[in-house]
């Protein structure tokens, strides 16, 4: 049985990615949540000890397969792709597979300005003036989406057709753009709508809403 440790669904973009990958693979797994925040933007007391108890790197997500621990969202995704090759989490064609890996890696390591100015808050709606660097990051994301969709992939509305690892890595960005009210051109908008319509993404967003409702109820 696989076990995935995640952070708050409303805020933890890194957790969302491998969670979606596991769902896309049809992999049976147990989800265990380690709450990260005691209030928006404020980490809770005792968090570091809780994280270190499941991951020597001191963060989530981390996937357990028996005694094997795999951390880092990209490493987890690659491991799941190897464990469930029939799921087609990467494209079959070598050229498309290379491109999918490249754009997933770009998301994994880049877009610092966008990340810093547009933190994931699935249930929130915020108005914000973005820096030139963040706007450039958003433009690059849109260009990636439009470039992939321009090739008219078969099998679905996602970057390479069916939902895969590349889509999982951009799903938090889809959420960020909605949260901060970023207007999208038609192709990018259609892609974002497809991600939100994807059943596991809806499930995650519903979980985020329940978290926020419980937090608000506890604060009353």
Could you explain how this protein is built, in words?
By secondary structure, the chain is α+β, with helices and mostly antiparallel strands. The protein has helices spanning 13-25, 47-52, 73-83, 94-109, 112-117, 132-150, 165-179, 186-197, 199-219; strands at 2-6, 29-33, 37-39, 42-43, 62-65, 68-71. Helix 1 (13-25) runs parallel beside helix 3 (73-83). The model has no long low-confidence stretch (mean pLDDT 95).
In brief, what are we looking at here?
Helices cover 54% and strands 10% of the residues. With 220 residues, the protein is of the alpha+beta class.
User: Order of strands across the biggest sheet?
Assistant: 2-1-5-6
Q: Spans with pLDDT under 50 lasting ≥5 residues?
A: none
Distance between the termini: 38 Å
Shape from CA axes? Answer: globular
β-strand amount:
5-15%
Share of residues in helices:
40-55%
Instruction: Please provide the ordered H/E string of secondary-structure elements.
Output: EHEEEHEEHHHHHHH
Q: Work out the number of β strands.
A: 6
* Main sheet record: 4 strands, mixed
Structural class: alpha+beta
Average pLDDT works out at: 95
Please state the CA-atom Rg, rounded to the nearest Å.
17 Å
